[in-house]
Structure formats: structure tokens, C-alpha cells
Fold this protein.
Amino acid sequence: MKHETYLSHQDYSFGLFGAVGLSIPFFYLWNWLAPIYMSWLPSLYIHLPFWHTVGLFVLIAIIRATIFPPALFTKKLKYFHC
């Protein structure tokens, strides 16, 4: 019987590429529009570094998976009879 794992290395790499892909437009839009429309914010929040935006999207994905677990985690595997 084939051993099934919950998440493979491909799932993590897709998640990382997804976070990088989403953070590219967010990074440019935020650093372009924040100085114009949010000038009242401290400069720390107006000019976000790129890897901080990637970390933000990774953190959002972790929180979302914690609150709303995917069906992969909730289904019972066939060979575990408890």
C-alpha cells in the first residue's frame, strides 16, 4: 500500500511561488500609491521591502489554513481505522 502524506514538497513550492507571484503587483502598487494616499503613515509602512510583502502573503496563507483547513486534512485515510 502506498504511503500517503498530507503535504508534499510540491505543495509547499506552489505556495511559495503563489506568495511571490501575488506579492509582486502588491509591492509595486503599495510603494507607488502609499506615499500619495497614505502619507500619514510612518515611513516604515509606506516603503515596504519586497521580502516583507512575500512574508505577509505567506503569513496570510498560514492563518487561512489554520482557520479553514483544506479538505485534505479533514478526510480520514482509508487504512486508519480508529
